[in-house]
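Just scan this pair:

***
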Amino acid sequence: MNSRSSARVYRGLLYLYPRQFREHYRDDLEQAIADLSAELGRRRALSRVVLDLAVTVPRYRIEALMKEEHTATVLTVAITAMACIGIVSIFTGLYPGAVLLVVAVVLAVTQRSSLARAIDPVDGTRLRRKRLMTAAVLGVLLPVIYLVSLPILGDEWGTDATVAFGVWLLVLIGAVVYLIAGLATPKSHTT
């Protein structure tokens, strides 16, 4: 591997870093690899750089996620995941998993202001109404799916019954997710 191809490989590896970090430090990092290659040789320099990338890329990616503009997204995903796992655990008979559902609700209520800052206040009321309406529609679908599935659900669970239960469970999870998202969305304050 010649110096041009190793420099090209390194420039490609820099894309693993978050965009802002890359834009700010690209020239310095490219100079550092050039200096390191001159000092240690291309192969040893590249192996050291790959090791450095393995350590620093996850760190900077996590830092980028935890910045203010991403906090609400990470929090929403965490709340949704905990609520879904909690619901699934209840239906699979793992009742201690229901604690995750309670934690998700508590997080959604206590972190409402953090979630609210990420939403455009002009569209807040419309978005809240859409989410709550979707939750209501999905909530109405739950008993409908159950009643339609009653003839399919017999004493033994075959493929049809499993599919019907899977659809019902997905609608239930969707209803809970939209309900949490709707309740966490602030109303717009018109002045």
